[in-house]
Fold this protein.
Amino acid sequence: MYYYLIVALQAFCIYHVYKHQKPYYWFFLIFFIPVVGSIIYIITQVYNKNDADKIQSELTNIINPTKKIKDLEKKLEFSDTYTNRIDLADAYFANNDMANAINQYKQTLEDTSQNNLYAHQELILCYFKLQDYAGVLDSVEVIKNKPEFKGSKQQFCYGLALKELGQLEKAEAQLRQIDRPYSNYSERLELAKFYLENDRIAEGKDLLNEISEESKHMTKPNRRLYRGTIAEVERLLKSL
């Protein structure tokens, strides 16, 4: 078993040397020192340092997310550009620091030479996470007529914000635009709940049945992705 693994490793390394026209001494090292030579070759010639640096950076950001923010703050202090400020705002957002994210996104809007669509889109999400529904409505006003708004998660948040503010007819008008077969499962679940909460049981049940039926034809990755949504749909159907 191990013999065949060593041979396969050697074959891979020799092929890599030939394909990438590496120096000929690698052939001798791999051939005459099979295991050690192959490992040395893979570490020094195959393993990409840029990939390693990227992986290390991503792991650092997961373990210590504030480090990325501090690095971006220093970068912005050194060079106050639109891109650097957006990157910092995104980092605050990812770290669930909505107050600072909002502050940075708003500052980018002062640069009128830039397309401000992205900043407004993110502001809607920030305000929604803070449950500042009036803020959601204010930010939506700027972009609601743009084609990117229709069917987006921003429109979904807008619909839910209207619902929370008691503007039910307007909320339904927005949420219904998210109701597209074989997509937007979580959003459609919220629409079904909207119907049920407003005593429109038949409509809510019909939508839940649609999602349930569609879930039977999902790919395995999608079933894993929407496992919680599907479980909630089935729970609600059993309760009706």
